[in-house]
Amino acid sequence: MQRWQADAALVLITAIWGSTFVIVKHTLDTTGPLVLIATRFWVAGLALLIMLLVQRDRANTTKSSTLPALRSGAITGGFLTLGFITQTI
Q: Which residues contact 89 (CB under 8 A, 6 or more apart)?
């Protein structure tokens, strides 16, 4: 990747990220912050579930190795949820 392509990608990502604040502000005019966060997390969870199901056959993990990962992911997700809620409110 050329340097100008990397710079252009960063500008594009920044524009997308920055525009989400405007979208969230307008969405909060019609719905509450907890409904918005719940909807966002459900959509993301469904996307991750689909990716998990697609990649399931390629994964070479045992059940015992996935339980600590799920626990760590749940704890991290809880903190992420709290962060999103406080930022949105």
A: 33
Q: What is the dihedral of CA 83, 87, 88, 89, to 10 degrees?
A: 100
CA–centroid distance for 11 within its chain: 20
Contact between 36 and 84 under an 8 Å Cβ cutoff? The reply is: no
Q: How far apart are CA 22 and CA 14, in angstroms?
A: 13
For residue 50, how far is the Cα from the chain centroid? 14
Reported as a single tens digit per residue, the pLDDT across 1-57 is: 899 999 999 999 999 999 988 999 999 999 999 999 999 999 999 998 898 888 877
User: Coil, strand or helix: which one is 58?
Assistant: coil
* Spatial separation of the C-alpha atoms in residues 34 and 44, rounded to whole Å: 15
